[in-house]
Amino acid sequence: MKSLALPFWTLLAPVLAWIAYFAIGGMAGTLPSVLLSVVLIAGVLAAVHHAEVVAHRVGEPFGTIILALAVTVIEVSLLVSLMSSGGEKTAALARDTVFAAIMIILTFIIGICILVGGVKFREQFVTKHAATSALVALTAILVLTLVLPNYTISRPGPQYTNPQLIFAAVVSLIIYASFIMIQSVRHRDYFLPKDEKGNLNDAEDTHATPPSDKTTFTSLFLLIACLGAVVLLAKKLSPSLEAGVASIGAPNSLVGIIIAMIVLLPECIAAIQAARKDRLQTSMNLALGSALASIGLTIPAVAIYTLFSHTTVLLGIDTTSTVLLILSIFTVMLSLVTGKTNVLYGVVLLTIFAAYLFLNIFP
Predict the structure, then answer these.
(1) Any transmembrane segments, and where (predicted)?
(2) Domains in the chain, CATH or no CATH each
């Protein structure tokens, strides 16, 4: 079969995105915002295509790991940049950003993938060991970094002391590195798409001729370029988003949720496309791998920055957020632990996501 190619628009999109960022990124008004939104969406779609090329060349689960790491590295860079320029008012930025990303991944991305796959195929299949491996690692990191700070007594408020912060950062890295080893080396077979009988799910694109090394490296470079442009354009659009959110009387935290959704859009589209091809395991690799990378790498990076810059970082989430987080993890666990999914699981997860959005607008 024909190998994956690079359509011209996927080469043009990142170039236009970066040109738009430098040329009209500083302009105010409706027209510049609309233009930035258009090139942002084009950049997202191009990123998805390049991610598929790289993933097809290196195989699963390495392709999903590359996409997760690329997005996380750019997210961390943006987060540290905002914290360095925002001062004390950004003390809760890391917590809010990570929590928004986790809730979007656990409830929206996983929910929509299960729903789409269930509508088309009635039932889809995942490897139980892959789901439990990812969720046990994710649960431990989430509790240690976002919940436990509320209950330590060395320092008042939802924050760690420096030794506690270092410990949480080291533990996060150890857990994430252990998961990557399990996913890519020791138990790689857990994370390969399989059918009901446990046989490898040979989708049509599996038989396509792998792209050449030149095409793969070109796509990898353009993937990073697209993701960088998406994050920076989202940052430029944030003032317009803030104005729109303020006009409806919603809290400012909704802006962070919208930006997180934009940044996670490439992974969301790639996950949905995999679910539509009856490769739900690939969708879960993308979603859960991204969640682990998001918190497992972001928290250590923020810890290093705060220790060297002598700034404050608030990590503990409030009671409402804790309840929603526990409910989300518990529901995802029940949805995947049997190895079979249907539309009900997707509907329930999407209603939890709706509750998360609703309680952010009407706390």
Answers:
(1) 27-49, 61-83, 98-119, 131-153, 165-182, 217-234, 254-274, 286-308, 314-336, 343-362
(2) 8-361 (1.20.1420.30)
